[in-house]
Amino acid sequence: MWVITVHEKERIQMFEFDTETEAREAFKGIKGSKILSEVVYFNDPCFTAAGI
């Protein structure tokens, strides 16, 4: 999951995206102070021995 966090004067907004491509496209169009983050859940089976 990808998240864009936008900081405005007295408000913070967060937007979630399923893919990096979606997030980067949206990121280009957002004005102001913003952060693009990838959220990784380590309990996801692909990160555990059971997922191998």
Number of strand elements: 3
Main-sheet strand order equals 2-1-3
Query: How big is the Rg?
Result: 14 Å
How far apart, in Å, are the first and last alpha carbons?
Answer: 21 Å
Structural shape: elongated
User: What is the averaged pLDDT score?
Assistant: 88
Q: Which residues sit in consecutive blocks of at least 5 with pLDDT less than 50?
A: none
Helix share, percent: 10-25%
Helix/strand-derived category reads alpha+beta
Task: Provide the descriptors you would attach to this structure in a database record.
52 residues, alpha+beta, three-stranded antiparallel β-sheet, 1 helix, 38% strand, elongated
What does this structure look like?
With 52 residues, the chain is α+β, with helices and mostly antiparallel strands. The chain is built from one helix and three strands, in the order E-E-H-E. The mean pLDDT is 88. It has a three-stranded antiparallel sheet. Strand 1 (2-8) and strand 2 (11-17) form a beta hairpin. Helices cover 19% and strands 38% of the residues. The protein has one helix at residues 20-29, and strands spanning 2-8, 11-17, 33-38.
